[in-house]
Amino acid sequence: MSKEAAQFVFMTCRAGAEGAVKEEVARSEPAWRLSFSRPGFLTFKHAGDRPLDDRQLAERHWTFAHAHGVSLGRVTGEKLEVLAADVWRHDAVAHLADEGGFADIHVWQPAQPTLVEADDEDLVTPLCQEIEAALRMAAPESCGKLRLMLSASKRPTRHNGRVLDIVVLSPGEWWIGSHRAVRRHERWSGGAIHVSLPPHAVSRAYAKMEEALAWSDLPLAAEDECVEIGCAPGGASQALLDRGLFVTGIDPADVDPSVLAHPRFRHLKKRGKDVRRKEFEGVRWLVADMNIAPEATLEETESIVQHPGLAIRGMVITLKFSDWKQAARLPELVARVRGWGYRDVRTRQLTTGGQEVCLIALRRKALRRVGTLSRKRRRRGRVENRTDTPHTSLPGPHY
Asked: Is 384 inside a domain boundary?
């Protein structure tokens, strides 16, 4: 890879959030300079003495960037097959192909400004699938395995594999990049973790919760107690119920009858601040998704987690912004949550979310290791099955 090529970084984001990305990069990397910008796509010039490579970039994280990597340039033209051949003939791509090859190819289009919410199918369009097929068919001998990976089924890239990135700004303009698939979202095209919206889901909040849990890898376990503030109509609660949790939904609005009928769900038709703190005893997980300002969301959440006698292990909090300019306050919002005693706090603008940020908080990072070990033991059959009878109803508080 040439030094010149390795001095550029690309990022893709939700269309409209470009300003938030620029603000975040300026705060964390003051030496970087904006080079190119289109809705949902930006490149930055790294002005350091040493060029970055995809391994170094894999260690970085930006809340508002769905995907990022080393920018290698672009190809333009009219014929798909010619463009695919031009990608492999590109000096930087040819060098990486000879150096160690690519484990996978990711092709996607930035989310369009007209989309309020997006998902992997909105980013990986039929055009992207056609481009990916052409790239795989044109792969050189050094990357011959890529031809064998042609499949209609969605699958994540292997961990730490080098990915050839193609960001499609238009049918005749493709930007080329490379990244290492280290974090979970980096193993999917455009950082859009594939989540399914089952037929019984009552809202897209189901997909948003699934993406949040897949990205964060929270150590939730079946039969844990969870409270969701702002649950109506019940999509996110459904995702938690389908994972075997007991869920108490708090919302003055109506919840879908199918969710109300679930034996592990109960509805408190109130505002969060009107619920007795006794109702939170024994709860391990707190979910908050309310259509109020971020400060108001944290104020209501803080009154719960800081209450004496409660031990909320972790949280999934949605911070909604009426304007992307408000995103500049995110560092102080994160600092406030850490001030409650949560040492592991992470943020991401989910691909399934709107003009908002998902904040994940855990009391201790060690809880992740405990959760991972428990899941491995269950898979290997080392944990005995429960001998108590399943819960058939919740006539009152389960706590």
From this structure: no
Q: Please tell me the predicted confidence (pLDDT) of residue 207.
A: 96
With respect to residue 58, please indicate whether it lies within any of the assigned structural domains: yes
- Token pair, residue 145, equals 């395995």
The predicted pLDDT at position 114 comes to 53
CA angle 146, 8, 47 (to 5 degrees): 150
11 lies in some domain: yes
Beta bridge partners of residue 175, listed in sequence order: 74, 167
Average pLDDT over residues 274-278: 89
Strands, E, within 6-95: which ranges? 8-12, 33-38, 41-45, 67-76
- Residue 172 and residue 98: Cα distance in Å, rounded? 26
* Paired tokens of 93: 């791509």
Tell whether 154 and 289 lie within a shared domain. Answer: no
Which pLDDT score, from 0 to 100, does residue 323 have? 92
Left (φ > 0), alpha (ψ -120 to 50) or beta: where does 347 sit?
A: beta
Averaged pLDDT of the chain: 88
| CATH code (residue 234) | 3.40.50.150
366 found inside a domain: yes
Task: Write phi, then psi, for 54 (nearest 5 degrees).
Answer: -70, -25
Between these two residues, 147 and 140, which has the higher pLDDT value? Answer: 140
Strand ranges of the sheet holding 265-268, from the earlier edge strand across to the other edge:
265-268, 246-250, 225-229, 285-289, 314-320, 356-362, 344-348
